[in-house]
Specification:
With about 250 residues, the chain is α/β, with parallel strands linked by helices. The protein contains 8 helices and 10 strands.
Length: about 250
């Protein structure tokens, strides 16, 4: 697979006569921040579930971290992290208990979990909240903790499904600082979002419309192609079927 973290070839997921994902093809390089953009219902989450080894495609091919999505789902799960758009930790466990639990789920040795959990709590500035129930934390802190837990085992790829939904702009910026840090450490970041301004933070983005990938390029190149300085305008143009002004 050379330096490719994800490879998709005509990936399709069909429910009866409805194609949620329609012959999607793309590649993501190792260490890349790849934005998977689109409106609700565009097929983003369905495609992500396939790539995370949680659902089988109807047809097409895909490899994640070098593993086949049809035959090697368990190997895929061991090499990725995942954060859902709904908060994915346990509200009735403390901060440290959540870290310990998920560290065990991801197969991190118990002795290492103990040492690294303390480091993580200090890094997040949660020393005084370490023994509080996660349900008592503000949403922004919950999301940053969930992301930290998703990469606690140093996965090859982390999948983030609408990770900044509902948080304030300052926290969103802080969250993206954490994403940059993970990418610099060599973790490939695959992120879905409907916030078009967040596309600017990605190395490359794809735009999904009705299950199809309508475009894929750097944010700068896409804005140039559509003759605009706004990713919002790029997305709206694609949604209404406008043609590009430049190649």
């Amino acid at each position: 697979m050379n330096n490719k973290a994800i490879i998709c070839e005509d990936l399709t997921k069909q429910f009866g006569d409805f194609k949620a994902v329609d012959k999607v093809s793309f590649e993501v390089s190792q260490g890349e921040i790849f934005g998977f953009l689109g409106a609700n219902g565009a097929g983003k989450t369905t495609a992500m579930r396939i790539l995370c080894g949680l659902s089988y495609p109807t047809s097409g091919k895909a490899w994640v971290a070098g593993f086949d999505v049809y035959r090697q789902q368990e190997q895929i799960k061991k090499n990725i992290g995942y954060m859902s758009q709904k908060f994915s930790l346990y509200d009735n466990l403390t901060v440290v208990e959540n870290i310990t639990f998920y560290g065990g789920v991801y197969g991190v040795p118990r002795r290492e979990i103990k040492a690294r959990s303390g480091e993580l709590v200090r890094k997040l500035g949660l020393e005084s909240e370490a023994k509080k129930l996660v349900g008592e934390l503000p949403l922004g802190w919950k999301q940053k903790l969930a992301f930290s837990v998703a990469i606690f085992h140093s996965p090859k790829i982390v999948f983030l499904d609408e990770p900044t939904g509902g948080v304030d702009p300052v926290t969103r910026r802080q969250f993206w600082d954490m994403i940059y840090e993970a990418a610099q450490a060599g973790i490939t970041v695959f992120v879905t979002t409907h916030y078009m301004d967040e596309a600017e933070y990605c190395n490359r983005v794809s735009v999904m419309v009705d299950g199809r990938m309508e475009a894929m390029d750097t944010p700068a190149n896409l804005k140039k192609q559509f003759g605009t300085d706004s990713m919002d305008e790029v997305f709206y143009a694609m949604a209404r079927g406008a043609k590009r002004t430049a190649d």
